[in-house]
Structure formats: structure tokens, C-alpha cells
Design goal:
This protein is 83% helix and 0% strand. It has 178 residues and is an all-alpha fold. It has one domain (2-162). α3 packs antiparallel against α4, α3 (50-76) runs parallel beside α5 and α4 runs antiparallel to α5 (109-131). It is elongated, with a radius of gyration of 17 Å. It starts with a helix and ends in a 15-residue tail after the last helix. The relative contact order is 0.13. This is Acetylglutamate kinase.
Length: 178
């Protein structure tokens, strides 16, 4: 779970850099970030089934597409478009939270929404600092996003373990997924 979500923030960062700094490789970075959403959806399929994994992938891909709208509107200084994209982004985050909490009663909706909202705020700050060319703040913002996503991935993993304890061994004999 940590690897998948670290990939999420890493490739999101890469896309932010590509979009804001107009770097080559933007299409490839976006493609990789979108593949990460498929990977996350696939990771829950053994627990929640094919349909649930596909639904999460769909919601997460929407999350990425809306995030690009947020970054582009912020970079253009278009407040109306930014507010519209942000509203849509937060609605998508709520939809993801509700979907996950319906699948797993071990995740509290209030906590999931708070975690998702924190993720959006931190990611927005990361993009804004990059747009402002405040590179010191940009680095700090990325570190905060990275730390938050590790908390979120742990919350997700712990919820899965609590819901499906029979699928996980306890003790020192756990095998690495690598």
C-alpha cells in the first residue's frame, strides 16, 4: 500500500513539475500517473472484488484529471475556473471516501474524508508554491504531502488487515511483497 501511494505522490509531483515548468515528458508522466490509479484499483481486488477495484480506479482517474484542471487554472490565475475545479475535486474526494468506507467498515468516514481533504490541501499547496517559484516552500510542501500519504496508506492497509485478518499472517514470518 505504501509503495502504491508513494508512487501516487511521486508521479503527481512529476506531473506538477512538467505542467508548471513546461518540461518534456509530460505525456509520459501523466500516463504513468494514470497507470498508478489502475495499480491501486487492482490492489484492492483480492479483498473487494473486480467491480470494486474497477470503480476505485475510475474514481482515482477522475481525481487525477480534476487535479490537472486545478493546476492549470491556478497557473493561469483563473480564479473562477480554479474554484470550480476545486469544488469538483473535493466532491470527488468525498465520493472516494464514501466508496472506501462502504467497502470497509473499519474505516471511519469522518477520518477518511479528513485524510482525503488534507491530501488535496497539501497537493494544492505544493502546486501553488511551484507556480509561485517559491522553491524552498515547494520542497517543504512535497515533504508534507509525502508524509501525509504514508499516514493514509497505513490507515488503508490497517483497515484491510482488520477486516480480513485471516488473509494475513501474524508474527515474524510475514513475507515481503517485493
Amino acid at each position: 500500500m505504501r509503495k502504491l501511494w508513494e508512487d501516487h505522490v511521486t508521479w503527481t509531483r512529476n506531473v506538477i513539475l512538467c505542467l508548471v515548468d513546461e518540461l518534456p515528458g509530460t505525456d509520459q508522466a501523466i500516463k504513468r500517473l494514470l497507470q498508478n490509479q489502475v495499480d491501486i484499483g487492482n490492489a484492492i481486488k483480492p479483498f473487494y472484488g473486480e467491480a470494486a477495484g474497477n470503480k476505485l480506479t475510475k474514481l482515482l482517474k477522475e481525481h487525477i484529471i480534476i487535479a490537472a484542471d486545478v493546476v492549470n487554472a491556478a497557473e493561469a490565475g483563473n480564479t473562477v475556473a480554479l474554484n470550480k475545479a476545486n469544488k469538483k475535486w473535493y466532491a470527488n474526494a468525498d465520493e472516494i471516501s464514501e466508496f472506501l468506507c462502504k467497502a470497509n467498515p473499519k474505516w471511519a468516514l469522518k477520518d477518511m474524508k479528513m485524510m482525503m481533504n488534507d491530501h488535496l490541501k497539501l497537493t494544492t499547496n505544493e502546486a501553488v508554491q511551484r507556480i509561485k517559484k517559491n522553491y524552498d516552500a515547494d520542497v517543504i510542501a512535497y515533504d508534507k504531502v509525502h508524509n501525509e500519504i504514508l499516514e493514509m496508506s497505513d490507515m488503508l492497509a490497517n483497515g484491510i488487515i482488520k477486516q480480513f485478518p485471516e488473509k494475513f499472517k501474524t508474527g515474524g514470518n510475514m513475507k515481503s511483497s517485493r
